[in-house]
Amino acid sequence: xxxxxxxxxxxxxxxxxxxxxxxxxxxxxxxxxxxxxxxxxxxxxxxxxxxxxxxxxxxxxxxxxxxxxxxxxxxxxxxxxxxxxxxxxxxxxxxxxxxxxxxxxxxxxxxxxxxxxxxxxxxxxxxxxxxxxxxxxxxxxxxxxxxxxxxxxxxxxxxxxxxxxxxxxxxxxxxxxxxxxxxxxxxxxxxxxxxxxxxxxxxxxxxxxxxxxxxxxxxxxxxxxxxxxxxxxxxxxxxxxxxxxxxxxxxxxxxxxxxxxxxxxxxxxxxxxxxxxxxxxxxxxxxxxx
Length: 290
Ligand code: C5P
Hints:
Ribosomal Protein S5, domain 2, 4-diphosphocytidyl-2-C-methyl-D-erythritol kinase, four-stranded antiparallel beta sheet, binds cytidine-5'-monophosphate, isoprene biosynthesis, single chain, 11 strands, alpha+beta, seven-stranded mixed beta sheet
């Protein structure tokens, strides 16, 4: 298994490919804690049009190669969720496949890079090997079930209870990651109040962008305060997004997002932030609203 610098898939020609879109928690309320330590969440999750690409080609044994701008430091062994997903699906049968991941998303960044990769690995290999998807994909990671969906979802439980939401008004997002690793378990552990209010029982269908943003403004990311306490640069990312209709952290951080009404506004903001902070990872993309 090798990490390559270029983006071209290695080895045999891919027979199937799929994008692993980033996930963004537009809200993330922590409403309790289970006896096993996992936290109960209430979160509005969307996918956005920036992501990794996974390619699969026939092979005798299971291999994973990685390239792309964010390949550096991504493990190619069993720590990688793509291989763990493949092994979960294979269930010891010894099937082969040559997987090639083109990594664009920063890892451990609160936008589900690893979980989205695992979800597309399950989808591609389920078709490639002709085996059904397992029921308990949350075992791979709490965000894997939501990454097996596409449109906006309400995510509850520890991530396994999903309710599809009506299509959202068209909107665009700018993602900003300052390049600091914020370990998810440490951020959850530092959360002092683990019993905060959920979102309203009913999430309405929003008539327009302004109505959607008004709703989001009343919600929270309960992990933002403990994440900022650990990595104060997150506050600088939020500050950089202050011209957005709404700026907030996603997941356990460190990636922050700003929401904009138009692609042009989002691209202008992304350009401004990249110019001011060339070492940050910045991406503008549409929200996948349905
Ligand atoms: O499931 P995943 O590997 O993404 O979770 C990483 C860590 O985040 C868990 O080990 C746990 O400490 C924390 N976590 C949690 N409650 C959740 C999801 C994750 O406490 N609902």
